[in-house]
Automatic annotation (TrEMBL):
The gene is Tpmt. S-adenosyl-L-methionine binds at residues 16-27, 56, 77, 121-122, 139. InterPro entries: SAM-dependent_MTases_sf, Thiopurine_S-MeTrfase, TPMT. One of its GO terms (cellular component) is cytoplasm. It comes from Uria aalge (Common mure). One of its GO terms (biological process) is methylation. Its EC number is 2.1.1.67. This is thiopurine S-methyltransferase. One of its GO terms (molecular function) is thiopurine S-methyltransferase activity. It is found in: Cytoplasm. It comes from the Eukaryota. Belongs to the class I-like SAM-binding methyltransferase superfamily. TPMT family.
Length: 196
């Protein structure tokens, strides 16, 4: 698979935190993603009350939208500012507690209990900490993880998904020699290789 010069590109956690601090978050969508609205029926597959996972969630407005529909939403994000912004921008009261299994990690949970957001590296999560999920909305995670970490990311996702779960994945297509990423180019052939 030719991903051009991107295969060795590494974006550090510090760089991501800096993007949030500087407000350099062009990847955030204020109105929610039109593809989730378009393919929501595919993701839910006629089911209600699902546990839905948002990897690298930022302050995605879709989390509240799905929670308001009666689903339980769990997200993970390295930027505490992003998570606090999410609760503040939706006027949602939340409580904050440490995650004993992960050094330095926090969990911010809506007082209604249906939105739990973990502030830590996604690679620190496991199903023993967050459980398993019926659905995954990956709008900007696979395209944000460093290309060398894709297999690690997908392996983790597989351990977090229930047997009959569904994943809605959004990627971007462009000439990887003209843009260094993120978002990174993930060709369809690689997606098929990774997810099987």
């Amino acid at each position: 698979t030719d991903i051009g010069s991107q295969k060795d590109r590494v974006v550090s956690e510090e760089e991501w935190l800096q993007k949030w601090e500087m407000g350099n978050i062009g990847f955030h969508k204020e109105q929610g993603h039109p593809l989730l609205q378009k393919y929501l029926d595919v993701l839910l597959n006629g089911r209600s009350g699902l546990r839905i996972f948002f990897p690298l969630c930022g302050k995605a407005v879709e989390m509240k939208w799905l929670a308001d529909m009666g689903h339980s939403v769990v997200g993970v994000e390295i930027s505490e500012q992003a998570l606090k912004d999410f609760f503040a921008e939706h006027s949602l009261p939340c409580c904050e507690e440490p995650v004993p299994e992960i050094s330095g990690a926090k969990r911010l949970q809506s007082t209604s209990g249906n939105i739990s957001l973990y502030c830590c590296s996604i690679y620190d999560l496991s199903s023993s900490i967050v459980g398993k999920f019926d659905a995954v909305w990956d709008r900007g995670a696979l395209v944000a993880v460093n290309p060398r970490d894709r297999q690690r990311y997908v392996s983790l996702m597989m351990t977090l998904m229930e047997k009959n779960s569904s994943c809605l994945l959004v990627t971007v297509s462009y000439d990887p020699n003209k843009h260094k990423g993120p978002p990174f180019y993930v060709p369809e052939s690689e997606i098929k290789c990774l997810f099987g």
